[in-house]
Write a structure and sequence with these properties.
By secondary structure, the protein is an all-alpha fold. It has two domains: 6-98, Rna Polymerase Sigma Factor, Chain: A; 117-187, Orthogonal Bundle (Arc Repressor Mutant, subunit A), CATH 1.10.10. Helix content is 73%, strand content 0%. The chain contains eight helices and no strands. It has helices at 6-22, 25-45, 50-67, 78-98, 117-135, 139-150, 155-162, 166-187. The protein is elongated. The model has no long low-confidence stretch (mean pLDDT 88). InterPro entries: RNA_pol_sigma-70-like (IPR039425), RNA_pol_sigma-70_dom (IPR014284), RNA_pol_sigma70_r2 (IPR007627), RNA_pol_sigma70_r4 (IPR007630), RNA_pol_sigma_r2 (IPR013325), RNA_pol_sigma_r3/r4-like (IPR013324), WH-like_DNA-bd_sf (IPR036388). GO terms for molecular function: DNA binding; sigma factor activity. This is RNA polymerase subunit sigma. Pfam families: Sigma70_r2, Sigma70_r4.
Length: 188
Amino acid sequence: MQSPDNNEREVLADWVEAVAETGDRAAFARLFAYLAPRLKAFLRRLGSNDATAEELVQEVMLTVWRKAASFDRRQSSVSTWVYTIARNRRIDLIRRESKPALDPEEPLLQPAAPVAADTVADEARRDAALRAAISTLPPEQLDLLQLGFFEGKSHVEIAELRKLPLGTVKSRMRLAFSRLRRAMESYQ
């Protein structure tokens, strides 16, 4: 690929700035006429077929039209800016194409089987029984149970937080579980 000389670089930059500042369609048409065949050849060398290369050129040039104001001739040449856009669009296209299609028969995508009404009612009664059993716990056991299971704190963290010996925390938790287990066994 032959790169434009300094004069051509300035002209290209002037065209992009004209597009950015005033939406100059004539400047964009000249820019398109200059860059489109070069971009297509570039994309073909990267492995795109004719149709894909043409589609990508259209996308790139549309991006140039929309993002012309973001071009800064002090940071790069127009060619560098546009070829980077083209390369990135091609990479995006390859990524989209390489994602596997979803299999509608995939078990994880199937709706869950409806739960039988008697099961729902049974679970509601069990939950109510558990809540009732929890409400009968002594306050010191209930507090530790809430810290451990609803706030996710470890025994060590609970001991530090409540300023209790670790053994006390463990024994109160064990007593709470023992009470809950007995209450739930009688529910069964």
